[in-house]
Amino acid sequence: MNSPIIDSIAASVDAWRGKAILIVEDIDSNYQYLFATLSRSGANLMWVRKGEEAIELILSGKPVDLVLMDIQLEGMDGYSVTREIKKLRPELPVIAQTAFAMKGEKEKSQAAGCDEYLSKPIRPSDLLKTISLYL
Ligand code: MN
């Protein structure tokens, strides 16, 4: 996070202040990594471990500007959760993040309505650049 390129991206995305990013991630250490990458952006970060909780949060009407969606989750997987979210808020950007760079994952994520797809491990610069396309 201390490299010049990341610093410059982080500086350029300070406009995320006031934006709300919902992180759906069931592994604590993965969340900590995302938090470390995104915390300086000024965005309001919300974290749920289960897809069902993400749907509830969207249903509650709480402001969310972008969703970072883990695909491998207990219960509903990230594809199913994304489908439900897109029924409720079609315009809400959803960025899928998966541990599996498997053939077909990109197509599956697109079919589920995900706007973008990132394979773990996600480089901070890729994460910041991708989010900046949607916030
Ligand atoms: Mn997972």
Topology summary:
Blueprint: H1 4-12, E1 20-24, H2 28-38, E2 44-48, H3 51-59, E3 66-70, H4 78-88, E4 94-98, H5 105-111, E5 116-119, H6 124-132
Parallel strand pairs: 1-2, 1-3, 3-4, 4-5
Helix pairs in contact: 1-6, 3-4
The structure holds manganese (II) ion.
Walk me through the structure:
The chain is α/β, with parallel strands linked by helices and 135 residues long. It is built from 6 helices and 5 strands; from the N terminus they run αβαβαβαβαβα. Helix 4 links the parallel strand 3 and strand 4. Helix 1 (4-12) packs parallel to helix 6 and helix 3 runs parallel beside helix 4. The longest helix is centred in the first third of the chain and has 11 residues, at 28-38. The radius of gyration is 14 Å and the shape is globular. It starts with a helix and ends with a helix. The mean pLDDT is 89.
Compose a concise summary of this entry.
The protein has 135 residues and is of the alpha/beta class.
Mean pLDDT: 89
Radius of gyration: 14 Å
Tell me the strand order in the biggest sheet.
2-1-3-4-5
- Overall structural class, as computed from helix and strand content, comes to alpha/beta
Q: Helical segment tally?
A: 6
Distinct small molecules bound, one entry per kind: manganese (II) ion
What is the count of β-strands? 5
